[in-house]
């Protein structure tokens, strides 16, 4: 009896490990009209609640926006969400980085349900560069020197007593997804969880992210930031029950955000993790 019980336990563990590593494969009915309507709705949201600020250190400058909780209670601590933009938002106007996925945090229901600080920095030059990695068998991303100024800004914000250092989250789309992975790789002890949407993977410090909560989201038809990169990265996270991979079979690089703009699933997933 004990032997049978032991075998059952081993099988149960193996099944659960396998389930933890299986990607979620989805095919959605893509309604471009509904997508455009939701995107337009988000683009019309008043962004004045996002304070317009600039960070300067050692002659380096980084424009950024910072959204605070609607109501801050005395002595309370709130999560910090770092929302990272795609390459079409490069610049120094301190406006363009507020892309639709970042603007979801401005919605009243989000600000009520997920009270938090939201940091949206803007890079003038790419904080990441892509190149074919023959050893890995995919295009991979390499962090650039200008990422250091963001690291210094985050370090400064972490000194704010109202920011909960146990709940700092990363989320980014495209170039922003790669940037999120760079930050996680370089400072794994800072971040509670990361979502990378259609990013090119950073595999330079795999041991640093091996056991971290990380959610990869990619469209199989993506030929701009190839799907293969996220697929291979997820395979490297074998055994990490905190890793998640969602594949949208019929979406590409430009449509991957469609199912993400009208849901709070991403915020729910992030907020369940603590460092």
TrEMBL record:
Domain of life, source organism: Bacteria
GO MF annotation list: hydrolase activity
Keyword annotations: Hydrolase, Signal
Dienelactone hydrolase domain ranges (all copies): 131-253
Pfam families noted in UniProt: DLH
InterPro entries (UniProt xref): AB_hydrolase_fold, Dienelactn_hydro, Plant_Biomass_Hydrol_Est
UniProt-recorded name of the protein: Dienelactone hydrolase family protein
The species this protein was found in: Pedobacter xixiisoli
